[in-house]
Write a structure and sequence with these properties.
Largest sheet: 8 strands, mixed
Distance between the termini: 22 Å
Structural class: alpha/beta
Order of helices and strands: HHHHEHEHEEHEHEEE
Number of domains: 2
CATH architecture of the largest domain: 3-Layer(aba) Sandwich
Number of strands: 8
Strand content: 15-25%
Radius of gyration: 18 Å
Number of helices: 8
Oligomer: single chain
Helix content: 10-25%
CATH topology of the largest domain: Rossmann fold
C-alpha cells in the first residue's frame, strides 16, 4: 500500500502477504500518471474560479452540470459537491477500480479515456457548465497530453461556464507545440498555488514543482491575435500545510 495507512503496525513481511487494493498499486498509479489532488488545494482553486469565471442564470446556478475529465477516486468532485449540492456531476476515469468510489460523488460515471483517437473529447461525454480536473501531463514538446485535455474540454463547455485545470506553472511555455496550443486556446487566468503539494499522502515527499489553476471561461468561437496572447495572473493565498497534502482515504470521503 502506497501510504502505509492501516498497515502501519504490521511487520514488513506481513505487509507483503496482504493484497494491495488496485487504487494504491504504485505501478498502476505510475502507468496512468495518477495523482491525488489535496482537497484544500481543490477547494481554494474552485472557489476562486467560480467567483471569477462562472456566469450562469439563477436557475442554472442552482443545479449546474459539473464534469471532472480525469476524476481518479473523486476528490475534486467531493469539493464541488460541497459547493453545489444539487449539481449534476459527471466523472470520467480510465481506471475501473475507481468506479465504486466515484459513484458516491457523481450521478454519471464513465470508465474509459476522456480522449478519443483524434485527441478530442469522446462523443458520449456530456457538456457541462464547470469542467475541472487535474489531467495527466507529459513533456510539452514530445507528448503534450495536458494540453490535449485542455483543448478537448473546450468542446464540452456550456455557455456561461468555465474550465479549470491544475497544471505546472510553465504549461504553455515549455515547448513549441505546447506554446502553439495556448496561442489557439489561451487561458483567461493563471492562479498560482502557493507552497509545495503532496499528491500521494503525508508519508510521501512534496512535489517541489510549482502549480497553477489554469482557467478559461466560455467564449464561443475564438480567434486570438497570435501576436498578442496574454492572460491575467493571480496569486492565491498560502494554504496551511495540511491543506496541501492528500489525506483522504478512498471510501472515507466527506
Amino acid at each position: 500500500m502506497a501510504d502505509g495507512g492501516a498497515y502501519d503496525g504490521l511487520l514488513v513481511d506481513q505487509r507483503l502477504l496482504i493484497p494491495c487494493p488496485p487504487e494504491h498499486q504504485e505501478d498502476r498509479l505510475r502507468f496512468f500518471c495518477a495523482d491525488r489532488t489535496p482537497l484544500g488545494v481543490v477547494r481554494q482553486g474552485a472557489r476562486h474560479a467560480v467567483a471569477r469565471h462562472l456566469h450562469l442564470s439563477k436557475a442554472a446556478m442552482k443545479r449546474p452540470i459539473i464534469l471532472d475529465c480525469s476524476a481518479g477516486e473523486g476528490g475534486i468532485l467531493v469539493v464541488l459537491k460541497e459547493m453545489f449540492p444539487r449539481s449534476h456531476r459527471i466523472a470520467v476515469e480510465p481506471r475501473p477500480e475507481c468506479e465504486e468510489h466515484l459513484r458516491r460523488h457523481a450521478q454519471e460515471v464513465i470508465i474509459g479515456s476522456f480522449l478519443d483517437h483524434d485527441g478530442k473529447a469522446r462523443e458520449d461525454v456530456p457538456q457541462a457548465h464547470i469542467i475541472i480536473g487535474n489531467p495527466p501531463f507529459a513533456d510539452g514538446e514530445k507528448n503534450p497530453l495536458w494540453m490535449t485535455f485542455w483543448k478537448a474540454c473546450t468542446d464540452r463547455l456550456l455557455p456561461g461556464g468555465f474550465q479549470s485545470m491544475l497544471g505546472l506553472n510553465e504549461i504553455g511555455q515549455r515547448g513549441k507545440r505546447d506554446h502553439m496550443a495556448f496561442m489557439v486556446l489561451p487561458p483567461d487566468e493563471q492562479a498560482h498555488v502557493a507552497g509545495p503539494i503532496k499528491f500521494r499522502g503525508v508519508r510521501r515527499g512534496a512535489d517541489l514543482r510549482c502549480y497553477s489553476w489554469w482557467n478559461r471561461r466560455y467564449s464561443g468561437a475564438f480567434s486570438p491575435d497570435p501576436l498578442d496572447v496574454s492572460w491575467r495572473t493571480a496569486h492565491l493565498p498560502w494554504l496551511p500545510k495540511e491543506d496541501r497534502e492528500w489525506r483522504t482515504i478512498p471510501g472515507h470521503e466527506p
